[in-house]
Amino acid sequence: MKNFLLILSLVIIASCSSAQKASxxxxxxxxxxxxxxxxxxxxxxxxxxxxxDAQALGAQVDEEYSSDKAAELVTWILFxxxxxxxxxxxxxxxxxxxIKGQLEAVxxxxxxxxxxx
Length: 117
What we know:
By secondary structure, the protein is mostly helical.
């Protein structure tokens, strides 16, 4: 019975936060149309910029995820009802999803424009 309560407690703790890891964030669909008019050099530059932005934002999302999970654990220990009001990292995750979508659109435009890597 003791083990069951411990497992149940861990499941509850793990499931309350809406925070996501960067690797769990899916790309948002972005139209390829704006990128089709760009030449291969401009597409490569845009891709490099988006990759840098995605890496920086991915690190921020992961940091917010860790911080959120730690705060959630402390909240559960000190005052359990407050754990249901932890925000998560939805705003940063949405920005990361948008950047991932833009990267996919740039890559699609590179294929259409027959850019070699």
